[in-house]
Amino acid sequence: MLGLFLVNIRTPAVTLKSIAAIAYLLIIIRTSIALISKFIKNLKT
């Protein structure tokens, strides 16, 4: 938490927001891929 707070002070808000948005998108993509692969496995069996 403290490390994130320090990074927030150093970096501009715009870059921090873009980094957060990219991380959020990556998490969504990873979870959706995992769900799709599970669904395909369930269909095969």
In short, what is this structure?
The chain is mainly α and 45 residues long. The protein has helices at residues 2-10, 13-44.
Which structural traits does this protein have?
mainly alpha, 0% strand, 45 residues, rod-shaped, single chain
Walkthrough of the structure:
By secondary structure, the protein is mainly α. The protein has one domain. Keywords: Membrane, Transmembrane, Transmembrane helix.
Write the layout of secondary structure elements.
Layout lengths: L1 H9 L2 H32 L1
Keywords: Membrane, Transmembrane, Transmembrane helix
Topology, number of strands: 0
Helical/strand content category: mainly alpha
Could you state the order of secondary-structure elements as H and E? HH
Taken together, the total number of domains comes to 1
Main sheet record:
none
**What Rg do the Cα atoms give?**
17 Å
**Percent helix among the residues?**
over 70%
Question: In whole angstroms, how far apart are the ends?
Answer: 44 Å
**Coarse shape:** rod-shaped
Count of DSSP H/I helices: 2
| Proportion in β-strands | under 5%
Please, what is the average pLDDT?
Answer: 82
Low-confidence stretches: none
Keywords: Membrane, Transmembrane, Transmembrane helix
Transmembrane segments: 20-40
